[in-house]
């Protein structure tokens, strides 16, 4: 993944370009840690060679994994970054389309880029904090 700071007046905005083979969630998490991000939002477009979506099962309090092991287009990639107990924590969602145009979406658990993923990430001027929510079992933003 390559990154470039494209705006820095009060809040930083970065352009991130992922290359073939890059794993999105771990790379974006590493970037957030390296930049010391405590609050940010991101959007992106591109394509994956494979992806694992997540659907949150309320009863199990865990994500059901939905693997797609084929080339897909990234129709929409959105999310945020907030501080968790161990530093920056991502909350990424994605909608991908298959060759036939059918769309699949959910929480992004894992994905490998092919050929590119272009992301714009904008830091927010205030910190956001995620705290464990006992009812859902998730780390939710607390204002």
Which descriptors apply to this entry?
143 residues; mainly beta; 60s Ribosomal Protein L30, Chain: A; seven-stranded antiparallel sheet; two-stranded antiparallel sheet; flat
Assembly state? single chain
CATH class: Alpha Beta
How many strand elements? 9
Number of helices: 1
Please state roughly what percent of the residues sit in beta strands, choosing from under 5%, 5-15%, 15-25%, 25-35%, 35-45% or over 45%.
over 45%
Mean pLDDT across all amino acids: 94
Number of domains: 1
The CATH architecture classification is 2-Layer Sandwich
CATH fourth-tier homologous superfamily: Hypothetical protein, similar to alpha- acetolactate decarboxylase, domain 2
Low-confidence stretches: none
Rg result: 15 Å
Helix content: under 10%
* CATH topology descriptor: 60s Ribosomal Protein L30, Chain: A
Shape: flat
Distance between the termini: 32 Å
Largest sheet: 7 strands, antiparallel
Write the H/E string, N to C. Answer: EEHEEEEEEE
Structural class: mainly beta
What does this protein look like?
This protein is mainly β and 143 residues long. The chain has one domain (2-127): 2-Layer Sandwich (60s Ribosomal Protein L30, Chain: A), CATH 3.30.1330. 8% of the residues lie in helices and 64% in strands. It has 1 helix and 9 strands. It has one helix at residues 24-35; strands spanning 2-7, 13-19, 39-57, 62-68, 72-84, 87-97, 103-123, 129-132, 139-142. Strands 1, 2, 3, 4, 5, 6 and 7 form a 7-stranded antiparallel beta sheet that branches. The protein has a two-stranded antiparallel ribbon with strand order 8-9. The longest helix has 12 residues, at 24-35. The mean pLDDT is 94.
